[in-house]
Structure formats: C-alpha cells, structure tokens
C-alpha cells in the first residue's frame, strides 16, 4: 500500500468564508435578541398605562359649585332684613374730619359715615359688630369699617355689642375711603361668625 507523504495544503479562501458566515450568524442572533427586548419593553409600557398613578396636578374629584346667591338690594330709609336682624339706614355723611367735643380725627381723603338702626328680631340675644358691614363703590372696591375709636358728634359708633331680643340700637358705621368715589352701597351681613352668611345691599344714593 502506497502512502503519499505529501500534506494537502489548506485552502485559505474556504476558511475566510466560514468565518464570515459565523459572523453573520452572530450578528443576526444579536439583532433578534435586541428586537425581542424592544418588543417586551413596548408591551410593559402599555400595561403600565392602563392604571396611571395620579400626579399632584391631577384632580381626585371635581366639585360643582352652586350659582352665586342673589343679594337683595334696598334703598335708603327702607327696613332691610338680613337673617333675624333688620337694618334701616337713615343718613349718610361725607367729611374729612370726625369731631366729638375737643377730639378730632382727620384724614387726607374722606370719611363716609353711615347712620343705621339695628333691630334684633330673634328670640335669643344676637351679637353685631362694625365688621358685619362693608362699603362698596361703583368700581367694585370694598372698604372695611374704620377701626379707630372716634365719635361723631352725639352719634355713637358701632364696634361690637350684644342686642337682646326685640331691642334696637342706632349707631354710625364709619369708613375711610378715597375722595370722590361714587355709587356707594352698604353690604350688611346677618350676624357675626357662624350667625352670619346672609347678605343684603343698601343703596346709599351717593
């Protein structure tokens, strides 16, 4: 038996082709894995959107507020009823100084002094204060009662007091305002704190 001692040479071209085929298979496999990861991520995000978590800007519920209450308007000299109180404005004075004896309180603008009779129509004592009243002008500005201890002649200012059932008090409520305002309306509350909340307007004719 004849044995050829010559070694058959390796074909380098065949080795290169096999290596290129292996690289292609590896790249294809990596591409498939990456595609599967992307698809899994899409499904996971869609599932989480089914029950989104409310953020701080997301309302938990929406409450429908009722329409604004209609506030009745009375004229100067009329009996104006707010809750169990009845108010009657008998006069309005505009001045730049409040005088009582030797005491004077001046302003660079003006004081609007509203004289009002207050009657308690309840069966129980009721509290009333100057903060139960607010002055408004035609521009929509509102003014709180003047909070300094100032009398106006013989008229006693309203601060805070309790009226027994059936009693009346005549007081003045003082407001410091800019000079020259017009279209004045007195807004009156039905009482103090929890007893309040029912409003009326009294046209002061100025």
TrEMBL record:
It holds the Pfam family DUF4352. Coiled coil: none annotated. It comes from the Bacteria. This is DUF4352 domain-containing protein. The chain crosses the membrane at residues 25-44. It comes from Cohnella silvisoli. Keywords: Membrane, Signal, Transmembrane, Transmembrane helix. InterPro entries: DUF4352, Immunoprotect_excell_Ig-like. Residues 74-194 form the DUF4352 domain.
């Amino acid at each position: 038996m004849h044995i050829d001692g010559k070694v058959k040479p390796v074909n380098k071209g065949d080795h290169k082709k096999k290596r290129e085929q292996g690289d292609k298979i590896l790249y294809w496999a990596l591409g498939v894995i990456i595609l599967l990861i992307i698809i899994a991520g899409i499904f996971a995000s869609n599932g989480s959107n089914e029950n989104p978590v409310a953020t701080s800007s997301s309302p938990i519920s929406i409450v429908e507020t009722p329409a604004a209450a209609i506030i009745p308007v009375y004229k100067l000299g009329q009996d104006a009823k707010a809750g169990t109180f009845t108010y009657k404005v008998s006069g309005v004075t505009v001045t730049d100084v409040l005088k009582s004896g030797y005491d004077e309180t001046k302003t660079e603008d003006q004081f609007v002094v509203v004289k009002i009779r207050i009657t308690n129509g309840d069966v129980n004592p009721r509290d009333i204060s100057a903060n139960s009243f607010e002055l408004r002008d035609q521009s929509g500005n509102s003014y709180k009662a003047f909070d300094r201890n100032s009398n106006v002649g013989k008229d006693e200012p309203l601060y805070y007091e309790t009226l027994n059932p059936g009693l009346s008090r005549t007081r003045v409520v003082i407001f410091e305002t800019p000079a020259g305002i017009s279209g004045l309306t007195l807004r009156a509350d039905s009482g103090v704190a929890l007893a309040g909340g029912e409003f009326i307007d009294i046209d002061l004719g100025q």
